[in-house]
Amino acid sequence: CFDKAIEIDNNLVDAWVKKGFAFQILKKRKDAIMCYDEALKIDPNHIKALEIMGFIHNELREYNKALNYYNKVIELDPNSQLAWIQKGVALENLGFYRESEESYKKAIQINPNSEFAAIYRLRKSGAPLGNICPKCGNIVESHHKFCKKCGNKLKTDEKDFKIWMSEGIIHMRSSRFREALKCFDKAKELNPNDETIYLSKGMILEQLGNSFEAVKNFNKAININPNNIASWMGKGMALQSLHRLEETIECYDNAIKLDPNLAEIWVNKGIILSMIHRHEDAIKCCDEALRLNPSLDLAREVKSKAENALRFMGRL
After folding, report:
1. Which of 105, 118, 276, 302 matches a 20 to 30 Å C-alpha distance to 130?
2. 3-state class (DSSP) for residue 309
3. Cβ–Cβ contacts within 10 Å for residue 19, how many?
4. Which among 37, 97, 98 is positioned nearest to 69, based on CA atoms?
């Protein structure tokens, strides 16, 4: 559907951005970057595209490139807390700790009551979660319900859950996967029925090469919400790593049921079908992908290899 919108009007910035996001879900960063580049050619000041490009380069550990994008966002919107936070992450990973602290402090000045501000104060104080006032940063004794300094009521478990999730995501985006897992485990203690915990843990565990545990977490996410494409795709990729290819196809089929218009899912399914020598079915998947996105080169490549395999076997 994004390709159809772009075909009608190549200057539709939001269509390029949404297409880029779809590629991100499928872990196709190069294709995502291409889409965001196209969006920025049309509108060099598109803040969302700039923010996401910065995020992707932080993920790829290309911190200098990430800084360029976040500096541009800050130039356009000096009050973007997200940009200041992510700029701090990039600077921290480059070893510019003083400059990183300055970015974090700027983010806190923009919104002193944000979850990030609470996390920052927590790190600085060394206090246990729940014993720090998110409003003023004052240390509060565990048996007190209010902060004596500002009168603010202590965080509820729900607030604690959000803080652990936020810190986990910050670690995850900075490729500090072990620290992220610890945060998500703390969040799970407070709310074991949140699908995002298990989806996030599954993605991290797959990155760390622990595909077996990744599948377990994706299954938990799916049990809570079977309508999330990302969970089915994540499970499919983890099963592929375990060479459980028939089950991988089942996952992609479930993702297709949820959204049959994502060409990239059809290609992924085609790749797996070729791997188990179901070349005719692989070609059908690639044809569907090309119907949805005629410019998808990967679909042509997979289809060509499947056709060559059939010719070699005398079946084409």
Report:
1. 105
2. helix
3. 27
4. 37
Whether 215 shows a pLDDT value over 60: the answer reads yes
Q: Look at 169-173, 239-243, 270-274, 284-288 and tell me which has the smallest mean pLDDT.
A: 169-173
Which one-letter DSSP state was computed for residue 153?
Answer: B
CB burial string 143-158: b at 16+ within 10 A, e below: eeeebeeeebebbeee
Q: Which contacts qualify for 161-169: CB closer than 8 Å, 24 or more apart?
A: 161/187, 161/190, 161/191, 161/194, 162/115, 163/115, 163/118, 163/119, 163/122, 163/129, 163/134, 164/129, 164/190, 165/194, 165/196, 165/197, 166/115, 166/116, 166/119, 167/119, 168/200, 169/200
Q: Which domains does the chain have, with CATH numbers?
A: 1-125 (1.25.40.10), 161-313 (1.25.40.10)
> Is the pTM above the cut of 0.85?
no
How far apart are the C-alpha atoms of 197 and 279, rounded to whole Å?
37
Where in the chain does DSSP place strands (E)? none
**Chain Cα centroid distance, residue 168:** 12
Q: What is the pLDDT of residues 69-108, one digit of tens each?
A: 999 999 999 999 889 988 888 887 777 878 888 888 898 8
Look-up of token digits 């159809």: 4
Tokens 């620290």 belong to which residue? 179
* pLDDT, tens digit (0-9, with 9 covering 90-100), for 231-279: 999 999 999 999 999 999 999 999 999 989 888 889 999 999 999 999 9
Beta strands in 76-148 (DSSP E): none
